[in-house]
Amino acid sequence: MKSSIYHLFTRQRFVALAFACSAGWHASAQTVRPDSVEVPYGRQAAWMVTGAVSSVQGSELKKTFNTNLGNTLYGRLPGLTVQAGSSENGVNTPGMVIRGVGTFGAADTKILVLVDGFESTFAQLVPDEVESITILKDAAAVALYGSRGANGVMLVTTKKGVKGALRVGFGVQYGFNKPIALPENLRSYDYATLYNEALQNDGKTPMYTNSDLEAYRTGNDPYFHPDVNWYDQILRKAAPMSNYNLTFNGGNETVRYFVALNALTSQGLLIKAGDKEDESSNSKFQRYNFRTNVDINITQKLTAAIRLGGTVEDKANPAGNTTANLFGLAASIPANAFPVYLPNGSFGGNALYANPLGNVLQTGSYTSNGRTLQGSLRLTQQLDFITPGLSVSGALALNTYFNSYSNKSKQYERFSIFRNSNGDTVITRFGQKTSLAGDESRSEQWRNYALQGFLNYDRNFGIHNISAMLMYNQDSYSISGNNLPYKHINGGARITYAYDERYVAEVNMAYMGSENFPKGKRFGYFPAFSAGWIASNENFLKENKVISFLKLRASYGLTGNDLIGGPRFMFDQLFPFGASPYFGTGNNGTAGIYEGTPANPDVTWEKETKTNLGLEATLIERITFNLDVFSNKRRHILAQPFFTVPQYVGVDLPFLNVGKVDNKGLEAVIAYHNAADAKVQWFVAGNAAYAKNKIVYNAEAVQEDTYLYRAGHPAGQPFGLQAIGFFKDAADINASPRQTFTTVQPGDIKYKDQNGDNIIDQNDVNAIGNSYLPTLTYGLHAGVKFRGFDLDAFFQGVSGSTVTLGNQFYAFQNNRSAPEMAKDRWTPATAASATYPRLSSANNLNNYRFSSFWQRDGSYLKLRTLELGYSLPKQTLARIKLSSARIFLNGNNLFSVDDIAGDLDPETLNIGYPALRTFSAGFRIEL
Fold first, then answer.
1. Angle at CA 100, nearest 5°, toward 98 and 101?
2. CB neighbours of 749 closer than 8 A, spacing ≥ 6?
3. Neighbours of 786 (CB within 10 A)
4. CB contact burial 619-636 (16+ within 10 A = b; e otherwise)
């Protein structure tokens, strides 16, 4: 059913409907164009903006109940691709890229994130303290960030006070997480049956007798013939999650304030540890957020903006860093390996595997305590006495993070049990019980200091509008374990001219330097030019009743990425300590050094030219439409050209800025809302973004066959063998090219001979499938409201990516269990319908190679959020003296339409912690 729905919708691309948006019922006006837009180091009237930007309000992000703010952004911002990491709370930060990827190799693709204008983490913030999140995508929008803007920029703006009486808000949300799907391994009877078959395929004697198989089938001998589902043993059915939020907002002409307090708690999926011993700990996470934002009019011309926020978070697991190893263990153990408990209550185990339940309950605990602090002070002085519209401002900021760890670990005994040939019970111990041992030596921290200064000018001269800004930014970023901080100095300017609200021209420029490059070459110039035409303000369109708003815009400029990868300070020649040479008859080692990787005295940042064409339109005051087409060309990507140093010299190849990548795509946004005074109000809106890159040059070694080159393919393109079916019989094997990895049999995977040399080896590796990064991201957002009731649904999906089944799907390899899909293995009787290769008891070097056989389409369509709410009517609110009150039911990640068998989630296919589905209920009131 799942697969058929997938083909019905996703195979038809769903693109006719697949435009998602970032609006919601309590902010449905966002289906209409905003009055102003967040831009680098300020705001601009929306009609003046000539760059490519997208925004979402913090109120919309509340509909995703998650401990990480990044996971609320799926599909909300056109051009932003969010990719799941682990689902485990506390370590569930997703990956994010803007407009795809424009580099390759070790270069970093992460975007620059600024909170209230300063670089900082944002994942730990909560939606209730966020006013908006904006992404900047083209050169006009990111040029001021110089050599740090090429990957795109995200601006996170926190809420500030609004003049008026004190307003107190309080919200409670309680729910639970459930795993969407878990790997399905063979149960004991099927495992034993298929393992016997695998042994026979390898010419070996079956391990399990008929009486063994019968005992597994009936389950009447649980100690000597166990049948254990380890996920059932270590996981609870649902894990509770709660969130409490309290806000204060108000002020007067002199002081305005916003204060927020938030407490979030999430239990992990592991069963409640401590049932056996209090020294153990369940997987759990809790975080406390606070924020105080204050704006002060010190005088009529001097204002101060204070932003202060922070978090305290605690995380606990059974001993060990994360639960990934625990989930990997549960997926690996055959169901018949050993019982959970022996008759005397001891834990089962064997020489190969520990007991997952024992690992949860009797290995101690691994805890961490993290603290973050974000603080800034900004002073702004109006200089109208010099000339109207002129102002100067300066700001200082400090962002810090510190995390300390405590690992209190111990070992426990586990036992195997079996009957020998005489029928006697034999118990063998593995491991030993030890006392709890503590290790609190690990900690990590970083600090970011920043200083900013601005000179702003904004003035209208009749139909002429002139806006200008000069800026200076200096920051220092220190990480524990690294004695040398990362530093940037950036000076820039923006000049905007608008004529009669019809024509807009803007120039952005930055002059930026970094400590990571050689003297004399640390600074670079980054200009950008953009223009806009508000055609709807022309006389020939002013009286038009269909086109309410129409703007065309274009931009072109140069940006950079200084996260180039490779070693730091590679312009210096290093001579590291290496292997000791041996001298004398005693063959004694002597410490020595060797010449490291050759230095690159001309190393520089990646440079990217960005071109963008955009169109914005509003039709009949109810339909909004945006379209952007872009082309990015990145050069000076770091690579190790094979031709620079002959191999006989004995040194590593130097890193040179020679790589090239082109990246092109488009984005579209469309939204419709009905009349605001209609009895039933509704909207539907959406976005779609397409981006595809190509490696133009990467200085790779000369290849005999052109299909071996990575150039011409996208960054991240997988290369492997192309599977073309199974060998039918011995005649088929003899008539086919020889596969060199191991001796093959009927039922083994057959690979394509790419070069026609009649041999299958590594020279037949070629591009298979698509990149891990989807080329198309899309969604659909719709809502309806009637008499206080509101229903909001948000869908999101991707297409154009490939995922690969990992080793948990390789039957019996490395003494592992076997997946359910192994039932569809090749046998002489099932040759026509088999979808899995013949079974092998030993590691099969042919069938489990990286190949197209194990690839799957990574496309999916998900219902990310569904929320049903009810808001009390004004008459009732007046009687109980509330400004607003709303109750709601909410669900996240409710279903997925995809092409992955076994109901597994395509986003977390090879991640140990399963994807989660969340159900919750709550209320919010405001006094």
1. 110
2. 723, 725, 726, 837, 846, 847, 851, 853
3. 12
4. beebbbbbebbbebbbbb
In this predicted model, what pLDDT tens digit does every residue of 244-270 receive, in sequence order? 999 999 999 999 999 999 999 999 888
The rounded distance, in Å, linking the Cα atoms of 52 and 631 is: 13
Please check whether residue 203 is in contact with residue 196, taking contact to mean a CB–CB distance below 8 angstroms: no
Residue labelled with tokens 């200084």? 562
pLDDT attached to residue 646: 76
SS3 844: coil
| N-to-C CA span, the chain | 48
Who's near 103: CB < 8 A, 6+ residues apart?
Answer: 109, 561, 606, 634, 637, 659, 661, 715
Calpha distance 719→723 (Å, rounded): 12
Quote the percentage of the chain above a pLDDT of 70: 95
The count of other CB atoms within 10 Å of the CB of residue 568 is 11
Q: Tell me the average pLDDT across 361-376.
A: 91
CA angle in degrees (0–180, nearest 5) for 187-192-197: 125
With a cut of 70, say whether residue 482 has pLDDT above it: no
* Rounded-to-integer distance, Cα 697 and Cα 149, Å: 22
How big is the CA angle at 840 (ends 834 and 846), to the nearest 5 degrees? 80
DSSP state of 2: H
Do strands 503-514 and 486-499 pair parallel, antiparallel, or not at all (unpaired)? antiparallel
Question: What's the CA gap between 641 and 534, in Å, rounded?
Answer: 48
Q: How many residues does the chain have?
A: 927
Angle at 443 between CA 439 and CA 444, to 5 degrees: 160
Q: Of all helices (H) and strands (E), which one includes residue 884?
A: strand 884-892
Residue 624 or residue 181, greater confidence: 624
Model confidence at 320, pLDDT cuts 50, 70, 90, reads: low
- 541 three-state secondary structure: helix
Structure tokens at 233: 């043993």
The string of DSSP codes covering 408-422 is: EE----EEEEEE-TT
Radius of gyration (Cα) for the chain, nearest Å?
A: 31
Q: Classify burial at 583, counting beta carbons within 10 Å of its beta carbon; exposed 0-12, middle 13-18, buried 19 or more.
A: exposed
Q: What is the DSSP string of 683-728?
A: EEEEEEEEEEEEEEE--PPP-SSGGG--TTS-TT--EEB-EEEE--
Please give the angle made by the CA atoms of 682, 684 and 690, to the nearest 5 degrees: 170
Contact 512, 493 (CB under 8 A): no
Name beta bridge partners: 532: 504, 553
d(C-alpha 316, C-alpha 407), whole Å:
10
Q: How far apart are CA 158 and CA 57, in angstroms?
A: 10
Count of CB atoms situated within 10 Å of the CB of 42:
16
Run of H or E including 865: strand 860-871
**CA–CA separation, 552 and 489 (whole Å):** 34
Task: Extract the tokens encoding 153.
Answer: 């920029």
Bridge-based pairing state of the strands 719-720 and 723-726: unpaired
Tokens for 122, please give them: 């944002």
List, for residues 619-677, the tens digit of each pLDDT value. Answer: 988 999 999 999 999 999 999 888 887 777 777 888 999 999 999 999 999 999 998 88
Shortest CA distance to 783 belongs to which of 892, 896, 917, 680?
680
Please determine, for residue 35, whether its predicted confidence score (pLDDT) is greater than 90.
no
User: Nearest-CA neighbor of 379 among 365, 390, 363, 395?
Assistant: 395
Total-model pTM: 0.91
Q: Tell me the helices (H) and strands (E) count for the chain, helix number first.
A: 11, 45
Instruction: Give the residue-averaged pLDDT of 220-235.
Output: 93
Looking at residue 809, the DSSP 8-state letter turns out to be: G
d(CA 660, CA 693) in angstroms, rounded, equals 11
pLDDT beyond 60 at 321? no
Encode burial over 457-477: b for 16+ CB neighbours within 10 A, e otherwise.
bbeeeeeebebbbebebebeb
Residue 139 host element (H or E):
helix 139-142
